[in-house]
Amino acid sequence: MLKIIVTGPESSGKTTLCKEISNQFNIPFTTEYAREYLEKKGVNYNQSDLLEIAKGQFISEGGLNQQLSLQDTDLITIKIWSEYKYGNCNNWILDQIEKQKSENRFYLLCRADITWEDDPLRENPDNRGELFEIYKKELEHLGHDFLIVEGEKRMEESLKKICQIKSES
Q1: I need a surface site. Which of 33, 37, 84, 141 has the fewest CB within 10 A?
Q2: pTM of structure
Q3: C-alpha count within 13 angstroms, C-beta hemisphere, residue 41
């Protein structure tokens, strides 16, 4: 199974891109579990909530059993945010990310070159560029293949790359 993960800083077009890819290939996608969790709990969360969010995200990722899987974010996002906000990350999250290195995963890394959209669950409008670089370094460190998605041709470039990867596998 090929897993396509759309990732990047807040308000970088991840969900919009997932919806477009989902429609193009007529496949479902896993949504960002953090949004569901925080809509129920509220925006006041702590680091222990990130472990609960990670477990919910992990479970939702396992629910798709098809040749092509599409995910709106993954555990790497939770790791990055935990380390950025709290200075460390829970070992369970780190262990799962390590195990996922053997999966057939491809990342669409969204650059935050689009206008910030205010949302009560978002909290970090000012340093999306810095976070983008953290995402990039993390994907490189883990050895995952990825495409930087940016500019006006985000969708076209993403579809072209996904079709290329599908034909190679």
Answers
A1: 141
A2: 0.93
A3: 16
C-alpha 6/C-alpha 108 separation (Å) is 5
What would the two tokens of residue 81 be?
A: 């945010």
Q: Do 31 and 133 meet the contact criterion of CB atoms below 8 Å apart? A: no
Cα angle, residue 133 at apex, residues 74 and 5 outer, rounded to 5°:
25
pLDDT at 119 over 90: no
Instruction: Kindly provide the b/e burial profile for residues 54-71, where b requires at least 16 CB atoms within 10 angstroms of the residue's own CB.
Output: bbbbbebbeebeeebbbb
Considering Cα of 109, then 99, then 93, then 2, what sign does the dihedral take?
Answer: positive
Q: What are phi and psi of 148, to 5 degrees?
A: -80, 125
Measure CA of the first residue to CA of the last residue in the chain; give whole Å: 9
Per the document, the length of the chain is 169
